[in-house]
Amino acid sequence: MKKLLLSTSALAGASVLAAGTAMAAEKPSASIRGYYEFYYTYTDEDADTATNEYADSAWYTEYEFSIRASGKADNGLEYGAKFEVAPDANDTRDEAGMYIKHANFGTLQLGQDDGVANTMNVGEVGRVGTGAADGDYDEIARVAVTGPAKLVGGDMSLGDTSKISYYSPRFSGFDFGLSYAFTRNETDDTRSHRLITNGGSGAHESEIQMALRYRGEFSGVGIGAGVTYAQQTAQDNRAADVNTVAFEDPSGFQAGLELSWGAWEVGVGYVQWEDALTSHSNPVAATKGTNVDDATSLTFGIEYSMGPWTIGANYLAEQAEDSTTFAADTENTAYGFGAEYALAPGLALTGEIVFFDREDESKVADNDNDGTVLIIGTAFSF
The pTM is what? Predict the structure, then answer.
């Protein structure tokens, strides 16, 4: 599979270069883009313990900016790069990469960016504001006493590891994509990321992503459908030249459907991971022989847009066997409702409310949680 993917990417690149001598019509141009979001949040949940107490009200911010450059040759060859910075994150660098594109041959993307399993997914509708039921409420509420707040999420979020991706042109409404990464790294320190002799459940030697998507219209109804797939080859722990712990190779898929007509849009999506200890945002492999197996999520959403208004609602149900101690499952359920009003180009008022309920696999009452999160604020983008 590695040879097939690399050969496909090489052929794609060669085809683009063969389109003719790329004489630039003008020098590449650059622009700065970004956003800043500021919210008031109110949380009502069963989060307090004997030693910790959580405030009900808090401010919540998100911000990011990027530098993007692009150029186009006289023969239609397009190329460019982006450098994203998220100052509120622990690691300020977010995504960085370049692309080469031609209408006849598709797009070759190189660098630290999301792969096709994330960028080509279909079915996430109703993500108004920060995303409502599949948004940022889990960064505000405690949600989980133990383990990750979200078990799976509504998409296959695999992070911005250094990778090579190919996106095909559209053929009769269909397009496909392929992504390949060697190791889970997001920096230019290649030497350290070549080290696989002392790996573990949090590392992998290779990762492949594939996606197939359809977009079209029938009798005034827009249709989008797609399926994505990802598989990772996990590293094994090693000591004294012997592999001491063996790990499973996580794999998963996402399938989704979207319908739109007039001002309305609805969508449904399903995600399933196998052999993953945790499945949300960069899955971690499970040790072989454990009872960890599947993690799934189901999302449904609806949106209505008219003039400056966008109103949406969505639902997220997650289930995971995320422990080697208990045979039961952990379940998350969330309902979200939100609205946005565009005050001016790039400036909007937003509000959303999310109701969540978590049943922990341990069946210990103190580990269960349920609550409500209210998020109101402004969002500026440029």
Answer: 0.82
Print the SS3 string covering the chain.
Answer: CHHHHHHHHHHHHHHHHCCCCCCECCCCEEEEEEEEEEEEEEEEECCCCCCCCCCCEEEEEEEEEEEEEEEEECCCCEEEEEEEECCCCCCCEEEEEEEEEECCCEEEEEEECCCHHHHCCCCCCCCCCCCHHHCHHHHCCCCCCCCCCCCCCCCCCCCCCEEEEEECCCECCEEEEEEEECCCCCCCCHHHHCCCCCCCCCCEEEEEEEEEEEEEEECCEEEEEEEEEEEEEECCEEECCEEEECECCCEEEEEEEEEEECCEEEEEEEEEEECEEECCCCCEECECCCCCCEEEEEEEEEEEEECCEEEEEEEEEEEECCCCCCCCCEEEEEEEEEEEEEEECCEEEEEEEEEEEEECCCCCHHHCEEEEEEEEEEEEEC
2-17+28-381 under CATH 1.10.3430.10, yes or no: no
Q: Are strands 294-306 and 309-320 parallel, antiparallel or unpaired?
A: antiparallel
**pLDDT averaged over consecutive 10-residue blocks of the chain (382 residues)?**
39 45 72 96 82 87 93 93 77 82 96 92 91 91 70 81 94 97 64 49 76 96 97 66 62 95 96 74 57 80 96 93 63 94 97 92 68 96 96
103 neighbors 169 (Cβ within 8 angstroms): yes
For strand 204-218 and strand 93-102, is the pairing parallel, antiparallel, or unpaired?
Answer: unpaired
- CA–CA separation, 330 vs 148, rounded Å? 11
How far is 62 from 172, CA to CA, in rounded Å?
Answer: 39
Neighbouring residues of 66: CB distance < 8 A, sequence distance ≥ 6: 32, 33, 34, 82, 83, 84, 85, 94, 95
Q: d(Cα 101, Cα 12) in Å, to the nearest integer?
A: 10
